[in-house]
Amino acid sequence: MNRIFDKKSDETELTWAELKEAFRKHYLPANIQADAQLRIEDANMTNQADNYVNEFRVMADESEYDDQALIHIFRKGLPFSLADKILNQPQGWPTDLEGWYKAAIRFDEQLKYAKAVQKPRRFQMARDKKKKYEKKEVAINRMDTRLTDDERKEYMKDGQCFQCAKQGHLSRDCPQKNMGRNEEHREQKKMPRDAYVKIQAIIKEYDTKEQGELLDIITMYEVFF
């Protein structure tokens, strides 16, 4: 570093490369090169290409590998889809490291933009599919009134119910169709028994003659129900 700070007038100016080399040798630890080589061999792009490029630049400078070795290492750390894009571009792949840096950033931005544009479309397709499924459910629930003659023939051929489209029963015996009716029927069947118990309790409050009249009424009531 004496040449930098104690420069004589007759000495030539240092180039940028020479200045960096002198600075590295004077200030950086002796094992910085070996450490950089280890880190750069394991480097991989994990998010954006520009971040990967910035980190790679530092390690590349410290590793002192030549450009051909660095190109190989840089390409190895790229995602397959991005490296494939760079290698298969019409003008061919870059011949220098700087070209690889620029191509990686450019194609990474293109790929991310393409994914961002496609996301709403996939969401719309999923929403349309859901609507279509909901419409189909409504159609199945009303199958017996909306089937065409051809559809009815097809359902009859396959032994499917006109009400729920399932096999194993006819429309008139469909569990979905008769579910409400069965519940109502069970409620109605409970009514005579409940009424009979109540009337029995009432009978005890009357004399023999009146009880006989009430029993006649009960008999008529049970027959009716």
From TrEMBL:
One Pfam family per UniProt: zf-CCHC
Superkingdom of origin organism? Eukaryota
Keyword Calcium: yes or no? no
Q: Which GO terms describe its biological process?
A: mRNA processing
- Taxon lineage: Eukaryota, Fungi, Dikarya, Basidiomycota, Agaricomycotina
Q: Which UniProt keywords apply?
A: Metal-binding, mRNA processing, Zinc, Zinc-finger
Cite a single GO MF annotation.
zinc ion binding
Q: Does the keyword DNA damage apply?
A: no
**Residue ranges of every copy of the CCHC-type domain listed in the record:** 161-176
Q: What is this protein called?
A: CCHC-type domain-containing protein
